[in-house]
Design goal:
heterodimer, A: mainly alpha, 82% helix, elongated, B: alpha/beta, TIM Barrel, eight-stranded parallel beta barrel, globular
């Protein structure tokens, strides 16, 4: 049931704290608003919330390190 | 230590910070893995070619995002193809992850939903990678802090399904396997036993640290490559060497907090010892 839309939605959750907060407040509604299927919305209601915040922090740190590296190369 | 008659190899990830130590200890390093993305702009490729003459070498990609329902970026694959053509490595590898979606760059390796759809799409992407680069990549299992959302199967089932649907060999990261097992309630030995062991060609070992969200009960093991491989990773390597019928190439990954080179070489020797112990048990079983 995975689709590009689902990957795009997950990517947004990982990088956008406001989108993540909206989703965690109303997972089904936010996923539905993004156009995901009912099956996908129900699956996302069971998301690993602890892991989501930890992964998002880890991804943010990686992105900032890459920006620093690019700055160092200039 | 028992003699290792399987022609296993033990090597190290090439990092600029380790260059002097690696070059002055090549007699103790059987294999080198270089990050492909560091050479896409052509800088340093001549030196990499020289290195590939001195030791068997793998090019390791980190940004193709092949485990996705979106087709990989052709320009990125063509960069890999050009690099492979110039360096002529023994093999190349990439992660089973998605790293971007649309215009959003996640910044690192994200676990795709573990479904039949991602298995089929990943197999198609691996086939496209093979056609453009010329050879199939080895594919690596990733570490994830979040249990892959919207999944309908566990990780061993998804990995096995992906390998069954493609002709790619497996680069098995034992610390990733260990961390995901600990974080999501799997037995790492069961995880290992459920994989198609004959498809494993290379093995990564590395270390990490515990993190939490302020609540110690929510702690998870982060794969950060800043620490030595923990004892369970060496134990898993011994188990793998006992079970796998083919020679293995083990690569130690270290991405910072670099210890003295002698300490790193000791980790390589420890990996050799773990392999030899497993091979010995295999022979006497």
């Amino acid at each position: 049931m995975n689709t590009p839309d689902l990957e795009r939605f997950l990517a947004k959750l990982y990088v956008d704290p406001a989108a993540r907060a909206r989703f965690l407040a109303a997972p089904y509604d936010e996923a539905s608003r993004a156009g995901l299927t009912g099956e996908q919305c129900r699956a996302l209601e069971k998301i690993d919330r602890i892991g989501l915040e930890m992964a998002a922090r880890s991804f943010a740190k990686k992105r900032s390190l890459k920006i620093l590296e690019r700055g160092g190369r200039r | 230590m028992a003699a290792n008659v399987m022609q296993d190899r033990v090597g190290l990830g090439w990092r600029p910070e380790l260059a002097a130590g690696i070059l002055s200890n090549l007699d103790r390093i059987d294999f080198i893995e270089a990050i492909a993305d560091d050479y896409y702009d052509a800088r340093g490729v001549a030196a990499l070619k020289m290195l590939a003459v001195q030791r068997p070498l793998a090019l390791h990609g980190i940004s193709l995002g092949l485990a996705s329902t979106v087709r990989p970026d052709r320009k990125r694959l063509e960069k890999m193809a050009r690099l492979v053509e110039r360096v002529r490595p023994e093999c190349w590898s990439e992660h089973l992850a998605f790293v971007r979606a649309g215009s959003i760059e996640i910044g690192h390796l994200a676990a795709p939903p573990r479904t039949a759809s991602t298995i089929d799409a990943t197999a198609a992407n691996l086939d496209e990678a093979r056609r453009i680069v010329g050879t199939s990549p080895l594919v690596e299992n990733i570490a994830t802090l979040i249990d892959a959302p919207a999944s309908d199967r566990d990780e061993p089932a998804w990995l096995s399904g992906t390998l069954a649907a493609s002709d790619a060999g497996l680069l098995l990261d034992l610390h990733n396997l260990y961390a995901n097992s600990i974080n999501f309630g799997l037995n790492p030995y069961d995880f290992l036993a459920r994989l198609p062991l004959a498809r494993i060609q290379q093995v990564h070992i590395s270390g990490g640290r515990w993190i939490d969200d302020g609540d110690p009960q929510h702690r998870r093991l982060l794969d950060d490559h800043l620490h030595d491989p923990p004892d369970p990773v060496y134990d898993l390597l011994t188990k793998l060497a006992r079970l796998a019928p083919q020679p293995l190439t083990v690569i130690l990954e270290r991405d910072g907090s670099y210890p003295p080179m002698e300490h790193i070489l000791h980790q390589l020797d420890r990996a050799r010892g773990a392999l030899a112990q497993g091979r010995s048990a295999r022979l006497t079983a």
